[in-house]
Amino acid sequence: MKIEQIYRQNDWWDKINWSQLERDVRRLQGRIYRATKKGDKKGANNLMKLLVRSESAKLLAIYTITQKNKGRNTPGIDGKVYLTTEDRMELSKEDFEYRTYKFQPVLRRYIPKALENWRAVIQGRKKKFNGKMEMRPLGLMTVKDRVMAIIISFALIAKWEALMDPGVMGFRPGRSTQDAIQMIYSELIGGDKVILDADINKFFDNIRHGAILDRLDVFHGVITRCLRAGIIDNGKKHRMTKGIVQGSPVSPVLANIALHGLQQVLGTDSSAVVYADDLIIMTRTRNAMRRIIPEVARFMRERGLNLKREKTRITGKRQGFNFLGFTIEQPRQKLYVKPQRERVKRFLDHLRLVIWSNKQMEQRKFIALLNPIIRGWAMYYRYSDASQAFSRVDDVVQKLIWRWCERRHNGRKGKRWIYDRYYGKAKDRKWTFKVKKTGYALVKASDVKRLKYKFKIGDMSPLNSDPRVKELWKRRGYEEIRCAML
Questions:
Q1: Helix axis angle, 18-37 to 41-53, nearest 10°
Q2: What pTM did the predictor assign?
Q3: Exposure string for 176-213, b = 16+ CB within 10 A, e = fewer
């Protein structure tokens, strides 16, 4: 059913076929991708304008922001959220003309970075915690501004997917951290390499606006207004002369646009893998690396960026390095990719805090709380050499669960009673934390089967309509190729 026909019905929002709408938007994105690949700049720009003006893109953006995203309950400075069908239908009547649209200032909030000291946080519940915790700034746009931003991102993603270097992995449709690790592994397995392991200092805060705007052929005005809308921090408005908002749907693709061209600077003898502010550069010799480093520094300066000195070093396979939560090293003959030790410790600290905070929870609900956490973490590392890390996690969790059982009864029950009450046999294991009546059991990290990651993404894109490429994506496990709609 066409959108015009849907509008004539009562409660038309609930009658929209969202899968069909996604396919319509994706089809137009595919045309933009093909036109860009062919070098038809004018045709690609016209198609991008057609997409951002389409009803399909507008409705899909509203649906994504107000129904699918986790932040749908979080308002911006106007205090508005659109959580009912009537609200969403009213929002669809608003003006989203990109040539005249004006963004409101972004409301800044601060969220704590990764937990460093779980004991201090636990103690802080009993008495005031005076420890310093590093905070990360997050920008909260109004819901309407988020809708406009994601409409623009639909078109920008489609064009820049055809232009991006293969090594730019962050925030792109169809790409994941596993693809980044696979690319590094493929480079290192073939021979010895000199590696630059670096972090970009305050990546999102310092990007020069011109580094983005100078590369845009279309939407220059609306992106300028988005970047310079300003920030409300502690009740005061601040101008934005640099940086992009963390939390904006269009920020990921803008960040990738700013970093476009790094591979051209490196040349054919070197390769780079970039994931947001994490950077790995691999080349053959130290002399080549000495030539590359000044070029990379100049590339970053042109974009208002620089590398963190304390987190930038030249290394090799023998010494190893960390990237995206993995440690990659070759101490002897085998090249290992395994969970980073600090990330394992951080995960266990998180589990300690979760278990401590739910001392009186019913066993079934407690298992239901922990299972997704343990399984999700293990699934992330299942393509790596994670056997030792999984065993360590299982051992620590077993001890934490036993202490949880003892605390529930204030130490008044014996070990045999606790075992009979909370544990039982499952498969070949005698000590399984499970509900006696139903058999619902706590998962173990080691239950997640380790797999070999075989998919090599290269410069392929899910927006490519070539039948051979589409077949490769299906083999990877995509029943439908979905674009990154954040």
A1: 160
A2: 0.86
A3: bbbbbbbbbbebbeeeebbbbbbbbbebbebbbbebbb
